[in-house]
Amino acid sequence: MKIIGNGRMITRNSANPWYDDGAVAFDGGIIKKVGTTAEIRKEFPDAEFIDAKGGVIMPGLINAHNHIYSAFARGLSINGYNPKGFLDILDGMWWTLDRHLKLEQTRYSAIATYIDCIKNGVTTIFDHHASYGEIKDSLFAIGEEAKNYGIRSCLCYEVSDRDGKEKCMEGILENEAFIKYAQKDDSDMIAGMFGLHAQFTLSDETLYQCNAHRPEGAGYHIHVAEGIEDLHDCLGKYGKRIVNRLFDMDMLGPQTLTAHCIYVNPHEMDLLKETDTMVVHNPESNMGNACGCPPTMEIFRKGILTGLGTDGYTNDMFESMKVANVLHKHNSCNPNEAWAEVPAMLFEGNAKIANRYFKTPLGVLKEDAAADVIVVDYDPLTPMDATNYSGHILFGMMGRSVKTTVANGRVLMKDRELIGIDEAKVMAECRSQAKKLWTSING
Hints:
alpha/beta
């Protein structure tokens, strides 16, 4: 039994949302009780006590769309790369990188990402993987490191026609094999989805194959209308919009996650709503790729389950929250925009998305929920309570403010010290693997 206490506590439980001096007791991977520090310590006097030292205690963060394979792109300069648009970015940077990724580099990309997640208080991720340099067993390698480093992970492989039929089928079979493996895993720490790149790199024949190989109960994880080129391709080839094509292919539904949705219209939003399909907003990536601002506020207000991701741009969900807030204010020229919607995406939407794939309640501190708890080193300079903590998070916190991270009851970091990880050794090997990758790309 362990207790984290002596801190201001945000529970995300509407019945008891806030404690001035709160504590959470957990045993194994499950929360046993939440209350004041005095109450919890009195009830469990023999429990190990982790002192929040006046920091803010809150549920572990969730990233609803990430790309582990992009980890070694940081600082990479590719010879001749000078993109003029989104398709140039895909082919010149991301597809070039993933075509050279070998299994060991995928593994170390995962290790680097998971360490960064721990440091930023992220305890659950939904990852969308591509490694056309070596496809087979790539999800299993990532899943192995997810277990080693203690981060709850829902994984998929990015199926695409872009590198030919043989590799496309390898991706399909990798998804199928990993989903079946994850469905048999009883840890509630690993899940699988069926990954698709984007409709403009997927023929009807490929989509039929995906449907044929998709295990029962799994949905799709796909980029939708991230660039205007994707929409133009769909209209030109199929005479319909992207969401309509996915609907006609029977690929929408409560288990399917659509990333971006920048160029979708109200009719497509209605289809997403009627099918209960999930949407993930990735503000930094959309801005960095100059793809445009999605109608996320309209999507959210229609009642579509909407979450927040990073698209591999960062592992800091507080950073993603800040960027989403200013992006939609800037885009709408409305200073009142996004105050409520963006926190709801991060703290409510992401938890609901995650709980479509994981059984234990996530994103909340309450009895019988997952023992995913973080402590943020934050001492408010103004009054902080249940009515204004979103403002404190937005303007006062960042990922590296996290000092303690617990996932599934396992202490992964305490007082900024990673537990059981030789970080210097791991980072040295990551740099070595990155150098091999860069050399293989540039020669």
